[in-house]
Amino acid sequence: MRRAGVTAEFVCLGCPDQEASFQLPALAEQLRKVCQRLRPAVLFTHSYEGGHPDHDACAAAVSFACSTMPSRERASEVLEFASYHSGYKGEFEAERFLGHSRRLWPRLLTEQEQQFKRELAACYPSQQQVLAQFPLREEPIRIAPQYDFSKPPHRGKLHYENFSWGMTGRRWRELARRAMTTMGIS
Questions:
Q1: pTM
Q2: Does 26 fall in a domain?
Q3: Which domain holds residue 178?
Q4: pLDDT tens, 65-105?
């Protein structure tokens, strides 16, 4: 973040890789408290598209946090950035959203911005295999849709179901339903 010139307060929610799905109520509560303290005008989050269980959990935790806050305390906009997921035919897709194209801003990157983004991606050596698949041509952003986290983000196999990560779409949705019940979210 410093390399990108971001001079904001950083808040770590202390959730290890691939554990967010199991901690949805706690993460949503932590996010709610952070939002109430910082009062952000805009929240940026992952989209619910089955790319990685933590990405889906991030989308859910933000949604759950916002739904448990009084409207006067919520960010005025929740925006999503495109990450990666499996397409409708199972192919890897990056920098694109599945459906839900509500107010999409496909910001094309200049050559200089693409190079800068490559330099930022290089800061994450453990992620190089995944990041190498990103075309880095644009920065698509959209207003977060109202998701039904009890339903799959799309038909077909979710991207993370291609790996032995111990998480399936069915299991993820059950964890989301339990979190919603725990938090009193309909």
A1: 0.92
A2: yes
A3: 20-183
A4: 999 998 888 888 999 999 999 987 888 999 889 875 666 77
